[in-house]
C-alpha cells in the first residue's frame, strides 16, 4: 500500500514538472538542444530489420517525466475512429493488454479492449 501511495505521489510530481516545462515552451519555432533536453530523456535506436522487402527501424523515445508514449499508428487511429462512430469503447493501445470483441461488420482486429 505504501509503495502504491509513493508511486501515485511520483506520478503527480512528474505531471506537475511536465506541465511547468510545457508552459515554459508554449511556442516552439526552432528545436534547440535546451528544448530537446527538457522534453526527452533518451532515444533508443534499434537494429534495422528487413521484412517482405521493406526495411524498418524501431526508435523508442523516452520523454521526460512520462517515459515512452505509445502513439497509435494510422491504422489504429482509423480503428478508434470507426469504434467511436459505432459508439463502442475504443481499443487501449498498451501492448499485451487487449481483449477481443467482434462486432458485426468489423474485423477481429477492431474495437478490441
Itemize the secondary structure elements and their pairings:
Elements: H1 2-24, H2 33-39, E1 40-51, E2 54-63, E3 67-68, H3 74-85
Antiparallel strand pairs: 1-2, 2-3
What does this structure look like?
- The protein has 113 residues and is an alpha+beta fold.
- Helix content is 37%, strand content 21%.
- It has three helices and three strands.
- It has a three-stranded antiparallel beta sheet with strand order 1-2-3.
- The two termini are 28 Å apart.
Kindly name the structural category.
alpha+beta
What is the total tally of β strands? Answer: 3
The average pLDDT score comes to 76
**Global Rg:** 19 Å
Strand content: 15-25%
Question: What are the segments in which pLDDT stays under 50 over at least 5 consecutive residues?
Answer: 95-108
Major sheet summary line: 3 strands, antiparallel
Q: SSE string, helix = H, strand = E?
A: HHEEEH
Number of helices: 3
Helix content bin: 25-40%
Query: Termini distance?
Result: 28 Å
The largest beta-sheet arranges its strands as 1-2-3
Key attributes of the depicted protein:
113 residues; alpha+beta; three-stranded antiparallel β-sheet; 3 helices; 3 strands; extended
Outline of the structure:
By secondary structure, the chain is α+β, with helices and mostly antiparallel strands. It has helices at 2-24, 33-39, 74-85, and strands at 40-51, 54-63, 67-68.
